[in-house]
């Protein structure tokens, strides 16, 4: 007790271990007998390391979206694909000629990007030596397309290979998918399909909207324009196979459309007077059509693959069929009506659309 009180009354100043003049018995005893080390806070701090001057990295250039004006002076690229370039390959009918254009014939590829001339509707694949674009298509293109398809596909798939490819394209296996919507098979979608084929032999395509009324046309256009083969179809889901001899490094050049061209002016879908009927008879027929209960109601961006069989069966018991299209865009039910008129019966203008 006395020693403790003495230390409290006369505290011994703490001295640095490297100063012999101020060295005390208390510190030497702790250091010699108990290997005492002073805490880091009391030990002298080493000098901070010299910081190297930071080299300023060059700033990245600001993002500049691509413009057709930047490509105007460059040499146009050439594409050897043996078919006409259109915005949509499933929503335009070559049998129906437009009666006018809504804008001048500005190419959607941009000025100077493609050696094919734009007619306002498409860029036709004609012989470069032809002076007029209104001439017929090169007769060698069809044979060239068939030979190219056979060379890429190679030997047909076996049943086991087909089943394996279809399994790898299911939703539970992969999330890779291409959506084919109300515009149909667009030109830029061809480039998306080739990008998917870099990583997989087959790609899953989901079809919704107006093109599903005629799924046969969708499948035909996909095979003709991509040179692939559809190996599975379930409703609006397709599996497109690229072929045994497909080489991503030798893929054809597909110029991208920078904007969507305006739709041409086509003839009216519904005529004022139906062929074979007078004006009064046509009005009476349309009034009866409005009183007919709707056969079905079409949902927006739905699957309409069963619409044509339904209309055909309804015509067996009734001369008028009404389809409720109130949830669709105006341009959509016009396209559906045009498809039904061609696919169901030639007297389709008798039908009314609400």
From TrEMBL:
PROSITE patterns assigned: CRM
Q: Which Pfam family is one of this chain's hits?
A: CRS1_YhbY
SUPFAM superfamilies assigned to the protein according to its UniProt record, in alphabetical order: YhbY-like
The keyword Mitochondrion is annotated on this UniProt entry: no
Give the UniProt entry's GO cellular component terms. ribonucleoprotein complex
Q: Where is the composition biased (Pro residues)?
A: 41-50
Disordered: annotated span: 37-77
Q: Which GO terms describe its biological process?
A: Group II intron splicing; mRNA processing
Q: What is this protein called?
A: CRS2-associated factor 1, mitochondrial isoform X2
Under PANTHER family, the record lists: CRS2-ASSOCIATED FACTOR 1, CHLOROPLASTIC (PTHR46247), CRS2-ASSOCIATED FACTOR 1, MITOCHONDRIAL (PTHR46247:SF2)
């Amino acid at each position: 007790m006395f020693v403790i009180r003495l230390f409290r009354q006369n505290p011994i100043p703490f001295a640095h271990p490297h100063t012999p003049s101020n060295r005390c018995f208390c510190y030497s005893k702790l250091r010699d007998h108990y290997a005492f080390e002073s805490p880091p806070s009391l030990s002298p701090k080493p000098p901070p390391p010299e910081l190297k001057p930071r080299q300023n990295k060059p700033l990245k250039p600001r993002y500049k979206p691509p413009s057709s004006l930047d490509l105007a002076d460059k040499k146009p690229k050439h594409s050897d694909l043996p078919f006409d370039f259109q915005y949509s390959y499933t929503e335009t009918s070559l049998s129906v000629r437009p009666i006018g254009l809504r804008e001048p014939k500005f190419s959607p590829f941009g000025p100077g990007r493609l050696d094919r001339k734009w007619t306002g509707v498409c860029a036709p694949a004609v012989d470069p030596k032809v002076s007029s674009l209104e001439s017929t298509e090169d007769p060698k293109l069809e044979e060239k397309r068939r030979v190219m398809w056979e060379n890429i596909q190679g030997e047909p798939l076996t049943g086991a290979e087909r089943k394996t490819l279809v399994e790898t394209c299911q939703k539970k296996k992969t999330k890779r998918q291409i959506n084919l919507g109300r515009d149909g098979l667009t030109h830029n979608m061809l480039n998306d399909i080739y990008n998917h084929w870099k990583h997989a032999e087959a790609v899953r395509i989901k079809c919704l909207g107006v093109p599903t009324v005629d799924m046969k046309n969708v499948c035909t256009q996909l095979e003709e324009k991509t040179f692939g083969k559809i190996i599975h179809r379930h409703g609006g889901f397709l599996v497109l196979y690229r072929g045994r001899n497909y080489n991503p490094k030798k893929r054809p050049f597909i110029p991208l459309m920078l904007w969507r061209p305006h739709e041409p002016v086509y003839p009216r879908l519904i005529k004022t007077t139906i062929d074979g009927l007078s004006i009064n008879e046509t009005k009476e027929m349309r009034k009866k059509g409005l009183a007919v209960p709707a056969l079905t109601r079409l949902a927006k961006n739905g699957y309409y693959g069963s619409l044509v069989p339904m209309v055909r069966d309804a015509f067996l018991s009734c001369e008028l069929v009404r389809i409720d299209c109130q949830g669709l865009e105006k341009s959509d039910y016009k396209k559906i009506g045009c498809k039904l008129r061609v696919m169901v019966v030639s007297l389709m203008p008798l039908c009314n659309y609400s």
